[in-house]
Amino acid sequence: MASIIKRCDCPGWDDCPHPWVVRYRTQGGRSSRQREQSFGDDLREAEDFLLKVEHDKKARVFIDPKAGTATFRAEAEAWLGHHLGADSSISTYQSVLRAHVYPAIGDRQIRVIRRDDVKALIAVMSRKGLGASRIGCAHLVISAVFNEAVRNKKLAESPCTDIPLPGVVYAADFTFPEDDELEALAAGLPADWAATIWLMHGCGLRIGEALAVRTRCRINRGTTMRVREQVNPAAQLRPLKSRAEGQFRDIPLPLYVSEAIDKHVTDHGTTEDGYLFQGRKHKHVTRRTYQQDFERAAAKAGLPPEFIPHTLRHCYASTALACGIPITEVSRWLGHKSIEVTHQIYGHLVPASWDRARTVLDDARRAGRHHPPASGDAALNPAAKREPLVGGGTGHAGSRHPSRTTRAGSVLIPRGLAGR
Asked: Cβ(225)–Cβ(233) under 8 Å?
C-alpha cells in the first residue's frame, strides 16, 4: 500500500514545514521498486496522488511517473537497437533522427513531449522543403518510439495521434526503355555484372537481391527463381526485406533470364559457394560501387538520369500488370509486405474493371431477355446450366478472361514508394 509521510522527526506533521511525501511501489508488490513523490505542503494533492496510484494498480493501468523521465534520444536508440528491419531501413531512420528529430526533441524527457511539439517538428520540416517521404519517415520513427514507451508502461498514451502529414508528391513520368537501350545498359556494365540487368528486369528483383543470386536459386527445372537473401550496402548477406531469416519467395523465371544466367556462369564462373556476382574488394558486390557503374552505363545508353536500378523493377511490375497478370500474384513475386503497397504504386495499371463490369452486366441482362429461364429444373435451380463467370481470377488455364488493353509508355511512381 502507498503511504503519505514526512521525512523528519517533528512531533506533529500538521504544523511541520517539511514537504508531504507519497511513498509507493510500482506493480509487483514488495519485489518491485519503491518510489517517492514530493508534494510540498499540499496534503490534498498528495492524497489524490495516493488514491490514483492504488486505483491504477488494481485496474492494471498504472504508469509510474518516474518511468517517463528518460530522454527521447535514449528511448529512440533503445528502439533502434531492437529493431529487426533491413540495414538500409535502419540507416534511413538513424539519418532522419540525427538530422531532424534529435535537434528538436532529442534531449527532452518523453513525459513532457506533447502533440503540439510533434506537430511543430513536422511543420518545420515541411517549411524547409523536405519531401513527403522524408517527413513521413520522421513521423513513423517518432510514433514507433512513443508506441514502444506506451507498451513498456512508461507513458499512458502517445502524443503522435492524428498528426497531419503532407500528401505524397508524384514524381515525373518514367519511360520504359527500348530493347536496344537495355542491351546497351547491360553492355555498359562490367561484363561479370551484366546479368544483373536481366534479373531485375525479368524477375523484378531489388538490387540487393539480384547481387545475392546463386546457381541453386534456379529450381523446378529452371522455371522458378527462389530468392532467399540480399546483399546490404556494406556487401553483407542479409534476409529478404520484411522477411525473417530463412524465408524465401518464388518467382517465375523467364527463359531469357535463365539463358543470361547460363551465359554468365560459362563466361565468368561463380564464387566457391555458387554466387553469381563477385565484388572487387569484398566477396560480394558493394552496392554503391555497382550504382556508380550503373549510372555511367545508363548515361552511355542514352537513358535519363532518373533511370536507376530500381526502375527495372518498376518495368517488371508495370509490364506484368498491364498485360493482365493479377495484382495479387505480382505483389507476391515482388515481395511486398502487403498487397496494399503494390496497389498504391501500381494500382492504376490494373486493367480498368469499371467498364468491364458494365459490359458484363449488360451482356448478362441481354442474354436473359433472349433466353428466359424455362419452367421446371432451370426455374427451381437458377444456377443450372449457367456459363462460368467471366474473370474468375483463378489464373488457371481454361478460365475465360476478357480481352485486356496493354498499357505501355509512362508510369507515375510516388516518391515515397519508389524504393518498395
From this structure: no
